[in-house]
Specification:
single chain; mainly alpha; two-stranded parallel sheet; two-stranded antiparallel ribbon; 4% strand
Amino acid sequence: MAFHYGIDQLDLDTVNGIATGRIPALLSEAAVAKINQSRACVDVMAASDKAIYGINTGFGPLCDTQISPAETALLQKNLLITHAVGVGEPIAKAISKLMLITKVHALSQGFSGVRLAVVERMLKFIELDLIPVVPEQGSVGASGDLAPLSHLFLPLIGEGEFWAKGDSKDIIPAAQALAEHGLTPLELQAKEGLGLINGTQFILSHGITALTKMQYLLDLADVAGAMSIEGMQGSGSPFRPELHEIRPFPGNIEVAARMRRLFKDSQNMASHTGCARVQDPYSLRCIPQVHGASRNAFNHLKQLVEIEMNSVTDNPIVISSEEALSGGGFHGQPLAMVLDYTSIAAAELGNISDRRCYLLLEGLHGLPRLLTKAGGLNSGMMIPQYTTAALVTENKSLCFPPSADSVPTSMGQEDHVSMGSISGRKLNQILGNLEKILAIELMYAAQALEFRRPNRCSDLIEENHAIIRAKVAKLEEDRLLKPDIDAMIKLVRTQAFRVNFALN
């Protein structure tokens, strides 16, 4: 089924499906009618003598300066050029593409007043894999993501740069790429520049990217925790449903159910039933509470991101041929705050994973110290935990909430901003570190299981253990571990582990 911009509702799976080409997306006649009607209203207002912000006036502190119809096109061009002041490395091409997709959807709802030709050119960019280059720094998250969106849409007027097609890291001038495809630069008209660069699509697209990655890492963290418990021969009692029915946080209940499935029919778990240990350390026993809290945060972010991806966030909003309503729909705070606390949720998954790594090295409950039988001459698995400790601390330093800060801009007209763009970028940095932490825990847990043989674990854990052993051999004597760690990180990043399964 095709997705219809401006008419249908996006969700996380759909927006990713459009981005990868799995789901076709198009403009329906209904959306075209809404775009054209909104544009007709702008044309009426632009020709009137009444000052209407963003249509026949300047911007920000210049909102009281009226612009003549003859100067409108130059004003819109100048708007893009003057706001394209981003710095730093470019964001990933995939995130720029998400920005295009979500912006097309917002503009197609018929409240922004841009011409159909502008939306069609954006769709042509997506079709031709002409994805603009956008610097990562420079947005304060209100009035939306001005700098990133300006860079995103410079190619509409023949300025800026595109990524080369495919997976190439090459960058080509927009004017060159347009000429190669027989496309001429557009001349923007009243309201169009503002409609393009007001909005939260930079923040939003980082949120989409983070959710997509975190969804897998949440599942993988459960698998890693279960493998570590099997390696430590820990207890399965903390995951019994009775414990979680009387404190029914949704994330906790889901994690406990996943853990029970991961231990199902485990010979290794059965082998130490009735042992003298009363309880395990928190990093094993409290997995439902910690992983579950992170799931709760994820679910909240997902809910808000899916609201935002179906919202109109530019300004002013075209109500009729007589009214364009100026408000604060571009303000990034609704996403910024939840991005910040989801950063804490992601960092905590790494925190507890590092603690499990440490436990596996202590030489407790039948495991050799440092997960090697030849300790002394061999350091075994001692040092990779230094890396997880470093990554955990780096993540802690990234948990400062940018949304708690605000630096006034635009001569005080924009006196409270969200800084949500930084929140989105930092969440993705934390998730990148979490991938590495979980990779090392999985390597440790796989090594620990070797000392529980001939006991077998559940089918799910044995399947994931085999995935590890296909790339990383059991550690018998000291060897260079960097290639092993790199191989584990690649397995995580390519989502090679089996983490999705029925809970019964």
